[in-house]
Amino acid sequence: MEIIPEGKHFRLVHESELPEILVTLERYLPESLKFHQTIKTYLNDRIWDFKFYVAKDWPDKPIILHFPGCTLAPHNNIYQTLGIFCPSAHIEHVDMLRTEDVLIDWQKPMYLNFTHIAIMNRLDDFYSKFGVMERLSGDIYVCNKLNTDLELEPLPEDAEMRLLNLDNVQGIHDLYPANEIECVQLFDILVRKLPGLGIFRKETGELAAWMVHSYYGAMFSMQTRPDFRRMGYGIRLAKSLTQLVIERGYTPFVVIRPGNDASRSLYTKLGYEKAFETCRVRMTPDCYEDSTVGTIDNTSYGKFPPLPQGDCVVVTKLRRKHVPGESQTVDEGIEDMLAEKCDISGDEARERKTTTDEGIGEDK
Fold it and tell me: Which of 21, 37, 132, 287 is the most exposed place for a label (fewest CB within 10 A)?
């Protein structure tokens, strides 16, 4: 699709500017960590073709965007998925998005990948007047120093940990709980270019658990098949991949939902510490209807998928009634789209062929 060179308040960044933008973002760590490492991975490995935009008064107004926010976008329109960073000390600059009518069409659904809670709260004041914001919450945990003294039990003799390869791509994508917003081609590139580890059964070669380094610098989506849970695979993968990510010059981080004590315990043992709160948001204007379907790399993808239902995470919907000026708040439970542990029945686990385990998922 045609790339827009300039919005009302933002301009497209030339690739030669990105190293200097990284320097500016370093002033705002750890809040800027996800955006900082998205650019760093983009420059180092070109995992996905992101378009970065900064405020026309950058860096005096330190707000930066990237499109798409995740790898699948409705109708091939990358401008319907969005990543945002603005430091909380300068949160007033988020208000520029309210009148950014060139890059963003607020009359269409938008999908915002994991974004600092202060930015989402600022958008609430604006968007709740005419649409619905569905949130999937999480806490960012950062590893500044890996706990290398942590001793782990050896793997069983019938299991081995090794690097993932291209033969594992389809299976990985099938297990990923948010695969409706990240295309299988992404996982192909991740396995080719970034470190990813799996634990395999020696006799059958079956993939029991896996974890990869993501395109935004994080520890991306640990998954364990139901039959292989509680065998210590998760913490072994997390420790080994954390070390690989550090060796590549990145700062490992994960997203953990607030009620996920198992994941929090696992990662804090490894040296991770909470940095800030974040959330993924699906934004839908009231009365929006769209029956068309787009395709991305031969994958059908029309309307944004709803955030999955369940009782693992509670989110708030801000829904405006169809009466001007009136609104109501509805609390609804949703299942965590991240790769985090949720208790499900054995029958349900077998039906899904997997369950979410400790760690982070995406998009994003």
Answer: 287
